[in-house]
Specification:
single chain, alpha+beta, Phosphorylase Kinase, domain 1, 3 domains, five-stranded antiparallel β-sheet, three-stranded mixed β-sheet, 12 strands, 55% helix, ABC1_dom, Atypical_kinase_ADCK, kinase activity, AarF/ABC1/UbiB kinase family protein, ATP-binding
């Protein structure tokens, strides 16, 4: 059993129930006290109660690791429009964003048992060397560096925490308790659809054999790409709890933040092309972009990892998303309104046509405007808030679950680009997949040549 992981459904339900009850009590207590407070004091009290709830959510969800933690991570980048005060919303979101990097620590002796049980052999039988210190950790597993005995290849070995399936199953039984808290701050969220979506994605994420299949699909989609690398999967060594992939010698995200501006802009364009443009071409959506899942090679290429929280999109879903973007790019307010009503996102009459477009303009200016834009971390919260905060005057807003996953993914990408302080004409890069425009950047022309079969990439180093 993984250290610190409470696998009891009832024990974990008690924590979540306490979280929900505490949030409700704070809300009621604050409302009652506000009766005798002036407006300024009431606003300050509301702010304290909201941030106390956020702190409590981080404390509880951060120790739970499974579906509860994933929902908390999702909430950190989506709808928090219940707060009228932008400062409160940003602070609430920043607190929840801590969940992005929380991961448990498990002793290697326990992780070794998982590897040997699943591979049906000792570590010495399979690997000529195995470094016991993990090189990465996530909500359901850790990654180690090793060398294969058979052919001497360096590999990355991703291993699930022992007992994590029981932890996640306990969470899945209690997902709606987490969403009961979320609903207080995200009144436009369709909690049933979001719960169903998270349950489906998390259940898939637990199956490393399925993740290996996702990884192989991405590797096929980007085989031979001039600047995007998806390392090979060692299929014979992949099981339900273990994935073995080719090891990539590269720098991590934190190592490139002080690179020259030209290098950071180039890396930013590659990240955008993979995470944003890529799903419109491949219909393969990585639902959990994270700085730790991109590695930066010395030759300028970027390697991408981790395809557990993953969605294979239908052609119809991609076509609808592209149609929405086309209407935003073209500033076609009427078409945007029609698509939003057809998808059940908003309800209302023609009076919402222009206000809806204004809302999208505020959220999408960074790529909807045909100019160079430098993204900063201060922009990201504002962009996400504008996209999420559609309750005021837009009727019963219900964001489809597949779009919640897409918004979560793209918001995380924005966060990465903001940290990178990358500058590009995102509008022109996006038009390549939204409208099929010819590329205008060097990277775009390289990618276009590859898609036409004119390029072979260098081997992974």
């Amino acid at each position: 059993m993984a250290r610190g992981l409470n696998t009891s459904r009832f024990g974990r339900a008690a924590k979540l129930g306490g979280l929900a009850g505490g949030a409700a009590a704070r809300t009621l207590g604050t409302k009652a006290a506000n009766v005798v407070r002036d407006d300024e004091a009431s606003a300050a009290a509301d702010k304290r109660a909201a941030l106390e709830t956020a702190d409590r959510m981080v404390t509880v969800l951060g120790t739970m690791r499974g579906a509860a933690m994933k929902i908390g991570q999702t909430l950190s980048v989506i709808d928090i429009g219940a707060f009228e005060d932008d400062e409160v919303r940003a602070a609430f979101q920043a607190k929840l964003a801590k969940l992005q990097s929380m991961a448990p620590t498990v002793e290697f002796s326990q992780m070794r048992k998982v590897i040997e049980q699943d591979l049906g052999a000792t570590l010495d039988d399979v690997f000529s060397s195995f470094v016991e210190e993990p090189i990465a950790a996530a909500s359901i597993g850790q990654v180690y560096r090793a060398t294969l005995r058979e052919d001497g290849r360096e590999v990355a070995v991703k291993v699930q925490y022992p007992g994590i399936k029981d932890v996640v199953r306990a969470d899945l039984k209690n997902v709606r308790l987490v969403l009961k808290v979320a609903a207080r701050f995200s009144p436009g969220m369709n909690t049933k659809e979001v719960a169903d979506e998270v349950i489906e994605r998390i259940t898939e994420e637990l199956d490393y054999e399925l993740e290996a299949a996702n990884h192989r699909a991405m590797a096929r989609a980007f085989a031979g790409h001039p600047f995007i690398v998806v390392p090979d999967v060692i299929t014979s060594l992949c099981t339900e709890r273990v994935i073995v992939t080719e090891f990539v010698h590269a720098r991590r995200f934190a190592d490139i933040l002080d690179d020259p501006v030209e290098a950071r802009d180039r890396f930013g364009e590659i990240l955008f092309r993979f995470y944003v443009n890529g799903p419109y071409r491949t219909r393969l959506l990585n639902g959990d972009p994270h700085p730790g899942n991109a590695l930066f090679l010395d030759d300028g290429r970027v390697a991408f990892l981790d395809f557990g929280f993953f969605r294979r999109q239908t052609r119809e879903e991609v076509d609808v998303q592209r149609a929405v973007l086309q209407s935003v790019y073209a500033q076609d307010a009427q078409r945007l309104f029609e698509l939003s009503v057809e998808q059940g996102i908003i309800s209302g009459g023609p009076e919402l046509v222009e206000p809806l477009m204004e809302k999208y303009r505020a959220a999408t200016w960074w790529f909807a405007e045909d100019r160079e834009v430098t993204l900063a971390t201060s922009d990201i919260s504002r962009i996400v808030i504008e996209h999420a905060d559609m309750r005021d005057g837009f009727g019963d807003v219900q964001m489809p679950a597949n779009q919640v996953t897409t918004l979560r993914a793209f918001s995380l990408v924005l966060g990465i680009l903001g940290q990178l302080r990358a500058t590009n004409n995102w509008h022109r890069i996006g038009r390549e997949t939204v409208f099929g425009d010819a590329p205008e950047t060097d990277l775009g022309r390289e990618e276009a040549a590859w898609m036409q079969g004119d390029v072979t990439a260098a081997p992974v180093a």
